[in-house]
Amino acid sequence: MIEFESFPRITISHTPTPLEKAPRLSDDLGCNVYIKRDDCTGLAGGGNKTRKLEYLLADAKVQGADTLVTIGGLQSNHARQTAAAAAKFGFNCELILQDVIGTPEKDYKTNGNILLDHLFGAKIHRLSADEDCEIYAATLMNQLQCEGKTPYLIPIGGSNEIGSLGYIRCANELLGQIKAQDIHIDQIILATGSAGTQAGLLAGLIAAKSHISVLGINVSRPAQEQTELVESLLKNILRSLNLDQNLANGRVFTNGSYYGEGYGVATKEMVAAVKKCAELEGLLLDPVYSGKAMAGFIDLCQTKHIKASSNQVFLHTGGSVGLFAYREVFY
Ligand SMILES: Cc1ncc(COP(=O)(O)O)c(C=O)c1O
Q1: What domains appear along the chain, each with residue ranges and CATH number?
Q2: How far apart are CA 111 and CA 326, in angstroms?
Q3: What is the pTM of this model?
Q4: Tally of CB atoms within 10 A around 136
Q5: What's the pLDDT tens digit per position in 90-117?
Q6: How far apart are the first and last CA of the chain?
Q7: What is the mean pLDDT of the chain?
Q8: Which of the listed residues 37, 51, 77 should we mutate to test ligand 1's pocket, taking the one with most ligand atoms within 8 A of CB?
Q9: Kindly report the CA angle at 206 between 294 and 303, in degrees rounded to 5?
């Protein structure tokens, strides 16, 4: 196990999050489904970013920052949770939010996450779909420094070696729960985007010498690109922890068959998956990440790529606030 206490961390999350059996979904899919409830991490509706922000805000504090800057799509869960964390710990917050083509007409620009961003008092910079967010962020960082502020740039999705520490912590927590519940887990399935959740989780499993396989269902890019993104971050994390980078070899699996026309664009399989989990388990997924990941999971079960009676953990990364931006696709 890696010694976590040596990394600065502030406590925000409500952890450990439960590892729950989903009996009705299990019957429906023909395998044993356990849900790791990282939608219940707390902080403004919860989700995977809470764990990353514990380390990112600690680092921002160490660096004497007074302003958090981050980037995301207009309905970014990461931006919403960053804005909430900034409010809680007394940072200013500047969000660079980009329009996403192919998303709903009615509520996407005003409801869901963006409604909450405003409530948390974040300053919002709206960019069109063709503007370059990274260039905009660099200019904004300069401008804030010229104004005498000390800005701290959190990368998209909070996905770097620091943010990913949150998912090493989650891996240890999950392994402890698997042991305590005396279950054997064949696979962990999750939504993968900016890659920090999958890479951090894998780093934690590798460090703990666990061979449980992890399958990322991609929300924005084809399999090869996403696999390379996760693998490259995983290697950087392993290096930063003085672990052998070769331990990443053969550990990263992603599936690019379920994101449809693009990031944030609804698919009918996502809608069906969100409805299935709501109706069978009273469980809320989201339209952009966990809904598409669950759609992939369901399909892989139905096409027998996932073995009947196997034990699967679905890592629920949160995001249900986004449902309110997608009202028109659900009815
Ligand atoms: C709800 C939700 N699930 C999954 C992800 C993907 O996590 P990552 O960006 O670490 O791959 C995100 C990222 O924003 C998210 O908001």
Answers
A1: 4-48+161-330 (3.40.50.1100), 49-157 (3.40.50.1100)
A2: 9
A3: 0.96
A4: 15
A5: 999 999 999 999 999 889 999 999 999 9
A6: 47
A7: 97
A8: 77
A9: 30
